[in-house]
Amino acid sequence: DLGKVIRESKDVLNGLLHIVMEDSIAKSLSAWFVQICGLQGEIASVHLAFNGLYVAVPQGKLKFPTSIATMSDFLDTFSYMLLF
User: Fold this and answer.
1) pLDDT in tens, 44-82
2) Strands across the sheet with 40-50, in order?
3) DSSP code at position 69
4) Rounded to the nearest 5 degrees, what angle is found at the Cα of 18, between the Cα atoms of 7 and 46?
5) What would you report as the CA-atom Rg of the chain, rounded to the nearest whole angstrom?
6) Do 39 and 47 contact (CB within 8 A), yes or no?
7) How far, CA to CA in Å, does 21 sit from each of 30, 31, 46, 49, 76?
8) DSSP bridge partners of 61
9) For the chain, which end, N or C, has fewer CB atoms within 10 Å of the first or last residue's CB respectively?
10) Contact 42, 35 (CB under 8 A)
């Protein structure tokens, strides 16, 4: 469930914010997550926009190849994975 994954990422971000004491660093923090279901998935990040307002930002889609014909789609997925 995407809502649960976003909530867990929000909790991770909260934990990071409690560790970091400098405001300049805390403002740039984000928590990233990967959700995979079958042969596809999503990469996204959670950011603290304002005090108490968290925003989930989609970063890319994951598509694993099901045949040689779909291997080109996997190259896009692979590039997203390298960014993560």
Assistant:
1) 999 998 888 999 999 888 778 888 888 887 777 777 667
2) 30-37, 40-50, 53-63
3) G
4) 35
5) 15
6) no
7) 15, 17, 19, 18, 37
8) 42
9) N
10) yes
